[in-house]
Specification:
The chain has one helix at about 15-25, and strands at about 1-5, 35-40, 45-55, 65, 70-75, 80-85, 90, 105, 110-115, 120, 125-130, 140-149. Helices cover about 5% and strands about 50% of the residues. The chain has a single domain (about 1-149), classed as Sandwich (Jelly Rolls), CATH 2.60.120. The protein is mainly beta. The two termini are about 15 Å apart.
Length: about 150
């Protein structure tokens, strides 16, 4: 897992070409002015999902992981907690859903506060729990760029 501010994005120029495309996309767009939905960057190799939601209490959070895609999650507006743990620290909660590349898990992990302008990169071994309220629920505008492994 990587967690940093968009101000430091140049530190990640040595990552693979698809992740570089994802990071370039999040630095070049004002997502607060964009509609929610999917945006193709490089077909199914790299695409973004722009979303708006209200953060939720940790009790309503779920651990998730992906096998086919790396998540680059960028907080465009608002703030939230993001949970993370190595997938070895989790157990299956529901069988893997291949068509959605989604594996629901259960376990425990650590949390970071993701403020506006921060991003996280979750690799397939990184179970994560996004969209958790810091104190009280707040609205968030987030972009999740899916990068084919």
């Amino acid at each position: 897992m990587v967690f940093d501010s968009i101000k430091n994005v140049e530190n990640y120029s040595n990552l693979n070409e698809r992740i570089k495309k994802a990071l370039k996309y999040i630095t070049e767009n004002d997502f607060t002015k964009m509609e929610n939905g999917r945006v193709d960057i490089d077909g199914d190799n790299v695409f973004a999902v722009i979303q708006s939601y209200e953060t939720k209490p940790i009790e309503k959070g779920r651990w998730e992981a992906h096998k086919k895609y790396i998540d680059v999650q960028f907080v465009a507006d608002g703030y939230e907690k993001m949970g993370y743990t190595h997938i070895d620290n989790t157990a299956e909660d529901e069988p893997y859903i291949e068509e959605n590349d989604l594996h629901w898990l259960k376990g425990e992990g650590s949390f970071i506060e993701a403020k506006k302008g921060s991003f996280a990169i979750f690799y397939p071994q990184d179970a994560h729990m996004p969209a958790i309220a810091v104190d009280n629920p707040v609205p968030v505008k987030k972009v999740v760029v899916k990068v084919l492994v």
